Amino acid sequence: MSVSAPRTSAARTNSVGRPLGVRELSAQATRDSILRAAIKVFAKHGFSGGSVEKISKAAKSVDRMIYYYFGNKEGLFVAVLEEIYRRFNDAEAGLQLDPEKPVESLEAMIRFVVQYYRDHPEFVSLLNSENLHRGKHIGKSLRAREYSSPVIGTTELVLRHGIAQGLFRPEISGRDLYLMIAAAGYFHQSNRFTLSAFLGEDLEAPEALAHWERFVIDMVLRGVAVTPRRATSKR
């Protein structure tokens, strides 16, 4: 048995399920182009420094199209946050996990999360920017909870199977387990430059990244195990 999280994607049909026409497809393309440009600009300059002018220039569009599709700069930033979470969900949905093998599935989840943060620095940068604003923009999103439930549900499913097999501690929740994994991956990526200077080593070196991934896997599996497990060997 294999499972993956529900996949979401940008709509290519209208509200009644009819395929989009040429004009509608053109409008969708314009909106998508603005959204892609906004992700790059906000990731580089933050919400405060990411002006409408910079975004429309990057999208090869005009300011009024941003106001037409997103209302204002804040509406665009909310859409950007929703989009990066949607992309994360889509990538997570590609994981093929076997709940009957909870240890292997949990290892795969850890590798995915750590690697996703590493491969998508814009995701981390945008979340950093939003946290500086105390989450006031994502709090206005109607989709934020929708995007959080699949990954938590997948984690919970793997955890429950591990508990049923007597491998994982029963008092652990899927939410807490996911936060543990996310924290380890996010902190390392978010603070890699300052930590490299502080520690006097390049945390972005391939061997350093491989070491951190192995360490996180071992830390999480030790944390959920019913009995202490030996450190994983280098692969």
Write a short abstract of this structure:
The protein has 235 residues and is mainly α.
Description:
The protein is an all-alpha fold and 235 residues long. It folds into 2 domains: 20-71, Arc Repressor Mutant, subunit A (Orthogonal Bundle); 81-224, Orthogonal Bundle (Tetracycline Repressor, domain 2). It is 68% helix and 0% strand. It has 10 helices and no strands. It has helices spanning 22-49, 52-58, 63-70, 73-93, 102-119, 121-132, 144-164, 174-190, 192-199, 206-224. It is globular and about 60 Å long. It starts with 21 loop residues before the first helix and ends in an 11-residue tail after the last helix. Residues 1-9 have low confidence and may be disordered.
Helix run count:
10
Tell me the number of structural domains: 2
Number of strands: 0
- Indicate the percent of residues in helices: 55-70%
Regarding quaternary structure, what we see is single chain
**CATH-derived topology of the largest domain:** Tetracycline Repressor, domain 2
Keywords, please?
235 residues; mainly alpha; Arc Repressor Mutant, subunit A; globular
Which secondary structure elements does this structure contain, and how are they paired or packed?
Elements lengths: L21 H28 L2 H7 L4 H8 L2 H21 L8 H18 L1 H12 L11 H21 L9 H17 L1 H8 L6 H19 L11
Helix pairs in contact: 1-2, 1-4, 1-6, 3-4, 4-7, 5-7, 5-8, 5-10, 7-8, 8-10
